[in-house]
Amino acid sequence: MPLDILKAGDEAAVADILKQGKPVEITGGGTKLGLGRPVAVERRLDVSALSGITAYEPAELLLTAAAGTPLSQIEATLSQHGQCLAFEPPDLSQLLGAGAGQTLGGVVATNLSGPRRISAGAARDHVLGLRAVNGRGEIFRAGGKVVKNVTGYDLPKLLTGSFGTMAVFTELTLKVLPAAETEETIALPGLDCAEAVTVMCQALGSSAALSGAAWVPGTGVALRLEGFGPSVEARRQRLLALLGRDADVWAAPASKAWWREMRDLAPLGSGAGQAVWKISIPATQAPALLEKLKSLGEHKAALDWGGALVWVSLPCGTDAKAGDLRALLPPDAYAMLMVAPAEVRASQPVFQPRPAAQMAIEEKVRRSFDPDALLNPGRMV
Known about the structure:
The protein is an alpha+beta fold. It has helices at about 10-20, 70-80, 95, 105-110, 115-120, 155-160, 195-205, 230-245, 250-265, 285-295, 320-325, 340-345, 355-370, and strands at about 5, 25, 45, 55, 60-65, 85, 125-135, 140-145, 165-175, 175-180, 180-190, 210-215, 220-225, 250, 275-280, 300-305, 310-315, 335-340.
């Protein structure tokens, strides 16, 4: 049955649609419909018309935009003033098989953050305030439009990463930061996983102030330095002396290109016919995990954040079962099935199963915003 597409032209229209009391799947640019479990509904709420930057104060490092604003528009505007979204939101359209055109609301709803998270934090750390509509059709606002905000509960952090299951974002205020004047990457080829984690942990524990630390088989370790030119040069020299290894140094153009590919998970391929997993794990346990993954057969892997984040791509034809992979994980690991065909995501847990008591609390909080489960029902089950 074809979906009934409901286009909301403004915040009031979003509220009116939700007051009808019927379940909806929420979309803006449509690039993230493949994240989470599939939503089985007859109506799709399109908020892409809620678009445009409504306030931007470069001197105050603040930007406010409607949730449906294309991320490309926001990044282009920030670039004109030498600023950026420091959490480095990835573009997963290639892996998800979706067209380009992600929106600000989609990025915040999924809390997508790139390699710079290790130094700048996640998307939720940059969301200062928002306007949204809950499952009752009630318009509300939370947070504020100042960097130091102490008004009540920090609902923006709670709602960021909720995959649209608690509220429909209509407007978001974010903290922005100056873009780095320059960047370089120290590349150490030829390291295996265990050597790579040792090197990355050593570098991250130094005074080099890295903004990225990753390992890709065949490429080796990449350590990113960003900031003012003299600072980057001084930190590079200290880090090379500390590591005491042969290394290549990539200048800004090559460095930016490599980290853009890492941000967008290009080392994992196109995603077609693949099950792509995001695994959070203590960095020192990453080598043992990759060794265990060999039992699952052919796969691709990469490490980010010094090894604390393991990306794994497995052919769906040989392994798509959550239990097969999760059985190999230590107790404190967290695994999310990021990319897989809809039928695979519908048949198994996408998010790491949590203790029953924790899930009960999460559900209670979710129902306080959306008592009738109208918003993206089943996406986070």
